[in-house]
Amino acid sequence: MFTNFLIRTFVKDSENTQNEEVRNKYGYLAGIVGIISNLLLFIVKISVGLLTASIAVTADAFNNLSDMASSIITIIGFKLASIPPDKEHPFGHGRLEYISALIVAFMVMLVGIQFIKSSVERILDPVPIKFQVIPFVLLLISILVKFWLSTFNKVVGNKIDSSALKAAAVDALGDVFTSSCVVVSFFASKFTDLPIDGYIGVVVSLAILYAGYSLVKETISPLLGEAPSPQLVNSISERVLSYDHINGVHDLIVHNYGVGRCIASIHAEIPSNIDIMTIHDVIDEAEREISDELNVHLVIHMDPICVETEEISTAREEVQKIIESHPSLKSMHDFRIIGTGEKKNLVFDIVAFYENTIPDEELKSYMAECIRKTHPHYNCIITVDKDYI
């Protein structure tokens, strides 16, 4: 309820998340909320840590301080990512949002490494911890605040599809776990003199390191060129196939230059005997409408396909059976027969599964040999395609 109140109050036109200005307002709101929440938690926990001499509480306090710095970097990342395209970066600066998230991840890991050292030192040289009711209650409240902050970042991150905010949500949820461990060690100090504080500090530090590693893994993937989401792939393919005269699609490639900055290209199979101006109008309309609907820049390449005949239909069915019987082959496209008389060229592309390790030449030889067994008059011209989705 409080999350929706903040969104309604500070984000005008909050449902229009495709709008870059609205999306940035979401990012700034999440960053400011993170700064305020983590600053308050740092003040509370560092006070408790100093009053009780608890290394685990102190480690958790500085973890909140690093989270506050992370929120500042997130705001900067959103600001830089919204810089308009220029000559050097014609597709904009959207990937800077991923870079800001990566910086946050490394900061989280640095905090974890520093406090592993402090926790080990506390185990080797124990210091008595003073249990007090009020600091204990304050720590419980901090857990509730972190849980809400995780939910808030998750809601906003999903609304605007922000990897930085989704990562912040995971990080905050990890803080709920680490703070819970701190509360346990703090409470246990009331009943034992063992250096539980140091051991819990190690657990907290390892959890912080794992959170940092997870953030690095999640944020570096789009920078390296990760595969598009299955939802986007299916949406593009289904929408293109919904237009008149388009009988098949293949070779979909999606390039991500940041959220809302996707460029996609796809091959559309059309009848070879259709009027070129007619199909050109269809393709133009599909590019324009799908680009607006899915918030991508779509380019469609036309692939003319031979008009269906009994010979083509029979040959395609036989080739399809060969492909289905081979575990490394996924599909085929651009199937056509060229030539007249006894000698004809059977031309088509085959798509191998991404995990395939068989050389292309071996796959082509296998297909050609299988086809020659029943159709020795066909000269096979085969191209092996890669699956980019």
SSE topology:
Elements: H1 2-10, H2 20-52, H3 55-81, H4 96-124, H5 133-160, H6 163-188, H7 196-224, H8 230-241, E1 248-256, E2 262-271, H9 276-294, E3 296-305, H10 310-325, E4 329-338, E5 344-352, H11 360-374, E6 378-385
Parallel strand pairs: 2-3, 5-6
Antiparallel strand pairs: 1-2, 4-5
Summarize the structure.
By secondary structure, this protein is of the alpha/beta class. It has helices spanning 2-10, 20-52, 55-81, 96-124, 133-160, 163-188, 196-224, 230-241, 276-294, 310-325, 360-374; strands at 248-256, 262-271, 296-305, 329-338, 344-352, 378-385. Keywords: Membrane, Transmembrane, Transmembrane helix, Transport.
Can you identify the CATH superfamily of the largest domain?
Answer: Cation efflux protein transmembrane domain
CATH class of the largest domain: Mainly Alpha
Q: What is the SS-derived class?
A: alpha/beta
Uncertain stretches? none
Transmembrane segments: 26-48, 68-84, 96-116, 136-156, 168-187, 199-216
Subcellular location: Membrane
Pfam families: Cation_efflux, ZT_dimer
Membrane topology: Multi-pass membrane protein
Account of the protein in words:
Residues 32-224 form the Cation efflux protein transmembrane domain. Belongs to the cation diffusion facilitator (CDF) transporter (TC 2.A.4) family. Keywords: Membrane, Transmembrane, Transmembrane helix, Transport. 62% of the residues lie in helices and 14% in strands. With 389 residues, the protein is of the alpha/beta class. It folds into 3 domains: 2-224, Alpha-lytic protease prodomain-like (Up-down Bundle), CATH 1.20.1510.10; 227-305, Alpha-Beta Plaits (2-Layer Sandwich), CATH 3.30.70; 307-389, 2-Layer Sandwich (Alpha-Beta Plaits), CATH 3.30.70.1350. The protein has a 3-stranded mixed β-sheet with strand order 1-2-3, with helices on one face. Strands 4-5-6 form a 3-stranded mixed β-sheet, with helices on one face. α6 runs antiparallel to α7. The longest helix has 33 residues, at 20-52. The chain starts with a helix and ends with a strand. The mean pLDDT is 85.
